[in-house]
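We both want to read discrete structure tokens more fluently, so let's practise on a single case. Would you write everything just below, so we can both look at the same thing?
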Amino acid sequence: HSATLVFSDVRPGKYAISLIHDENNNNELDVNFLGIPKEGIGASNNILPRMSAPKFDASSFLVHSNDALVFEIKIKY
């Protein structure tokens, strides 16, 4: 499976991307009783800590004017 997202006219700055695969379409990230995701998650730079949410600094990237950036984000299930 794959998906493509295009963001236009992004202002220069520091950004990070996080995503979930909402497999059951309930508009939320389902977790188990320990708070561990039961659905796929991903983040820019493909950095996913084992016991916490992705940190902004670890997942961030810089956008300069007129940049065309391409990311491949792996989803962990």
